[in-house]
Every structure is written in C-alpha cells, then in structure tokens.
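User: Some background: our group keeps a shared notebook of sequences we're curious about, and every so often someone picks one and asks for a predicted structure to add to the entry. Today it's my turn. The entry only has the sequence so far, pasted here. Could you supply the structure so I can complete it?
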Amino acid sequence: MQPTPRIAVTMGDPYGIGPEVVVKALADPELRQSARFVVLGMSEPMHYAADLAEIEPYWWRAPIDSPVASTAMAARGVALFDFDDVRLIGAPGGREPGPTKEGGAASFRFVEQAIEMAKLPNEDPLRVDGVVTAPISKEAWAMAGKKNYPGHTELFARRLSAKRSAMMFQTPRLRVVLATAHIPLMDIRNALTIGKVFDAIDLANEACLSLGIERPRIGVCGLNPHAGEGGLLGDEEDRLVSPAIELAVSHGIDAQGPFPADTIFNKALDGAFDVVVAMYHDQGLIPVKLLDWKDAVNVTIGLPSVRTSPDHGTAFDIAGKNKADASSMAAALRLALRQTVAQMARRETELNAASV
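Assistant: Of course. Here's the predicted structure to add to the notebook entry:
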C-alpha cells in the first residue's frame, strides 16, 4: 500500500490572515483524512481564528521541541507543532494592521522548521513529503533581519540547494511560470539572461510532465510591448528570449514565441498552450489574479521537495476579523497532496526498477 503523505503547513505571519485560512482550509474533514498534516505555528492565533469562525479545534497540539512530536506525526489528521516560546504583542484583530519585527521573526522560524523537516531522511518520523506555506510579509522578514530572502521561493531554493527554481502559478484555467520573480522592475533588463529564460521554459516543461501532460506546449512572452516590434521597441526578444526558445526546441521542448504579453494569455485560455512563461512578476501575475485569484496556487518548481502556497498575501487589514477566503489555501493543500502522491509513486517505481 502507498504510505500516507506527510505535509507540513506553515502558519504564516501570526498578525496576517495565515492562521485563519489554515484553520478554515483544514476544517474540511475529507481533506484532513487524506494526509498527515502538521501545522508549524502557534496555538493562540489558531484558536483565536477558530473561535471567530465558530470552528471546533480539530488538531493535536505538541510543543515544537517535545518528544511527543514524533507520536503526533504518526496519527492521521492534523498536529500543531506549537512554537510556545514566541510572544506576540496583541491579538491579530486587536492592533494596528501592518508588518512587525515579531511577526517576521516568527513566520521565518516556521518556514525554516518546515524546510528542515523536508530535508530529513525518509525513515525519520518527523520527515515531511511536502510543504504548504501560508502568507508571510517580506517587509516583516526584512524588519526581522532576513533581508537576504525576498520571499519563500528564494529561501526554499537556498536551503534545499536547488541549482535552479522558478515560480509557477496554477489555476483551473491557466498556468504561468516566471523567468524572474522578486526583483525591482527597473532591474529586470539587467537580470534577464538567455539562461534564465531557458531555465524557466525547461522547468515549465518538467512541471507539466509531472502533472501528466505528455507533450507540454509552452508559449513564451516577450519582454517589451508588442514583443519588441521587430526591434523598434527593444532588442531583448532578439538577444535573449528567441535564443532561449531555440535552445529549448533543440532539447525537444515544444516552445513557441516570443509573443506579445497582451495577447498570449488569451491564446492559452483558448487551448493553444499548456503553460505560459512570463518574463517578470506582474506580467504573469496580473492575468492569473484577474482570472482565478480565489483558486490560484503558487508552486515552487525545481525543488527536490513539493512546496505550494496560496496566491495572496497577509491581508493585514482584514486579519483577525473572520473575513478571509480560504479557497486558495485549500487549493494549495490539495495540489501539494496531489504532487506528493505522484512524487512518492515515482520514487517507489524507481526503487522497484533499481531492485530488479
């Protein structure tokens, strides 16, 4: 029998909507029974969110450094590994909204613990097969002294020693992979290279294959308006994007473009492409959030472990008010479950083949 997947869920910034969307998403009994979930966070914000939503707490609690942690991981359902040494100043709904040093430090610890659990050997009782991250504040991380990490993606890539990685956003109607992510708009021209564009195309192809798409069709955006208009509006398409596409094609990948960003997403919606590679953050995220912001999921591709997250931020302005929609968090949990099951099946197939 296939072993039950074990998935870590980080609570996110305790002053944001992370505790609320985690509590609401995992309140689904069917979802809870599909895996062993361990929430890395804090008991007080979780109970606060549950009380407001009138949800009966359904999780086991164990202090993060407790010997009971291994036992909690063995039970199907949800365990809360409580960072009970963290002290918050005021409840999420009882303070001025916004990032804090305390919230940044706490949310960073939750993520680092999840990554450490993902790095453990398969036989370790605390090892997890995938990680789902609730929203953090990049500003709060900077306030806590973590300026070297603009976000989850960069931290996971560094800690898991990924040679390359990219952000993929999946919705019921669209998939988008970013060639560059959390960098200022004015720096993109200097950051974009043939290699970055090729890696995004190649990783997009691999991600689609892992989802069961036999021959992925990849549409690639240009950087400039009208994809450069033959060099009249910029030469990056000729110097960087087209060579990357040609390299991908030479590797057997069905990549096409570069196409103007204001038309390519309509083509994808009409079924011309399985995934679109965008050159920068907002170029790819605006259509994703416009179309399916409630159901969109952020996936870090290129990692040795599964990592997904909802496609929204901390929403400090509504935190602690029971106004958050948990649809994207639920979608992130389900996609992580689907990916971990597929990854575990591939691993078992490889082991069986090796033993023959």
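Suggested note for the entry: The chain has a mean pLDDT of 90. The chain has two domains: 1-162+304-356, 164-302.
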